[in-house]
Write a structure and sequence with these properties.
- A 3-stranded antiparallel sheet has the order 1-3-2.
- It has 112 residues and is mainly alpha-helical.
- The protein is built from 5 helices and 3 strands; from the N terminus they run αβααββαα.
- It has helices at residues 3-15, 20-27, 31-43, 65-87, 93-110; strands spanning 18-19, 47-51, 59-63.
- The protein has one domain (1-112): Arc Repressor Mutant, subunit A (Orthogonal Bundle).
- 67% of the residues lie in helices and 11% in strands.
Amino acid sequence: MSDAQLAVLATLRMHGRRTITALAERERVTAPSMTNMINGLEEQGYVVRTPDAEDRRRVQVDITDAGTEIVAQTIKRRDELLADMLGELDFTEEELATLREASALMRKVVDR
């Protein structure tokens, strides 16, 4: 799975149902590019499309249980890898505090 596909799934997991246009804007890609990405994710069973209740011309994209699981597994693997890499280094208390502060700032960026 590409980082772009994972980012779309993570967005749907964190923020819920979105239109293809909204996903494209968030990921800074064109709507046709996002449509292609959603097609691939749908073929893999990670997302489903549902008609918009207010405008039948629009389609909403939802993450499936399989999509939620793949995001959770990927986050877990990345967290374990990062923990292993950090564990190999000998940080001072000051450096650890800096890492915690940087982590909190990066969380703000991710949660945007």
